[in-house]
Every structure is written in C-alpha cells, then in structure tokens.
TrEMBL record:
Record's keyword terms, sorted: Heme, Iron, Metal-binding, Monooxygenase, Oxidoreductase
Region (Disordered): 19-42
Cofactor section: heme
Entry keyword annotation includes Oxidoreductase: yes
Entry's family note: Belongs to the cytochrome P450 family.
GO MF annotations, alphabetized: heme binding; iron ion binding; monooxygenase activity; oxidoreductase activity, acting on paired donors, with incorporation or reduction of molecular oxygen
Transferase listed as a keyword: no
Protein's name in the database: Cytochrome P450 302a1, mitochondrial
The organism of origin for this protein: Cacopsylla melanoneura
Length: 168
C-alpha cells in the first residue's frame, strides 16, 4: 500500500516520500473528483465539475470504511456466523460497502494492510493510469508462490502474479 500511496501522493502512515498530503482522484478527461460523502448520511455525492476549485480534497485517513479492531483489523467481519461479509461472495461485500460508505471505501483487513475499494469507473481509470508500467498486485502473491513452489508443473511464476518486464 505504501507504494500505491506514494504514486497517488496520499498521506499514509510512515509515508515521507509522498509529494503531497491529500488524495486527488480527479480524472483528466472529465475534470471530476471523487466525493467521499456516504449514501446513508443524507448527503448527496457531488461529481459535477462546477465546484472543482472549491471542493476540499480528502486525506487517506478520511476515506470511509468499516472500523478496524486492534490485532484483527476487519477480518472478524468475514468470520462465519458472526461476520457480515463472506470470502466467497466478494461481489456482495463490495455492494454492501458501496451502499454503506460510498464510491471509495478504505478497509484495513489486518493491521497494516489497507485495501481501497474503488467503485466509480472514472476513479478506476485514474488508478490504472497512475500505477505505472508494472503495477504490483498483492492479490496474486499466493498464486505466484504456489507456481514457484511447483517447478515441475510451472516454469515461471506466471504472467499475472510476477513482474512481467521479462516478457516485454
């Protein structure tokens, strides 16, 4: 997450190399900015271009999301019987988070590991354009490890989970 924060100039804990302290998710083609207002607060999300100069940009810490507990983060919310989310229904988890927190959601799955759910296509486009030539995909680490641990079946870690610079 620290590398992602540095790319977006977000204010992250321990991030001293970032170029700024606020997250700016404006899209170059539309000029719109992500507004962090949540649907359940009665405030309306404003994605118009008329107030771009006056709209305050939120910091990374101000992105809404489920409350994280010490030592377990939000992992307890995914436990069977007591949790409100399920690992095998991530699409429903995303929809529930979007409805509760809005178009941009921050979640600390385990302490120190932040996940940002991005729902608006314009914001997703901004993330993809800002990642650089070889983006890091933490979700593929287990797949890469499995493939590298089984060289009799796989000759490499794979195109998706590894640094694809060797392919270019």
């Amino acid at each position: 997450m620290r590398r992602t924060c540095q790319r977006f100039a977000l204010s992250c804990p321990g991030n001293t190399r970032a170029t700024g302290t606020k997250a700016d998710f404006s899209t170059p083609n539309t000029g719109t900015k992500a507004d962090f207002s949540t649907p359940n607060t009665g405030t309306k999300a404003d994605f118009s271009t008329s107030n771009i100069g006056t709209q305050a940009v939120k910091s990374f810490e101000e992105i809404p999301g489920p409350k994280s507990l010490p030592f377990v983060g939000t992992l307890h919310k995914y436990l069977p019987l007591i949790g409100e989310y399920q690992f095998d229904r991530l699409h429903w988890n995303g929809l529930a988070k979007y409805r509760q927190y809005g178009p941009l959601v921050k979640e600390e799955i385990v302490p120190g590991v932040h996940l940002v759910w991005v729902f608006r296509p314009e914001d997703i486009e901004t993330v993809f354009k800002s990642e650089g030539r070889y983006p890091e995909r933490r979700s593929h680490l287990a797949l890469e490890k499995y493939r590298l641990d089984h060289p009799e079946v796989y000759s490499t870690g794979g195109l998706l989970p590894t640094d694809v610079s060797y392919c270019v």
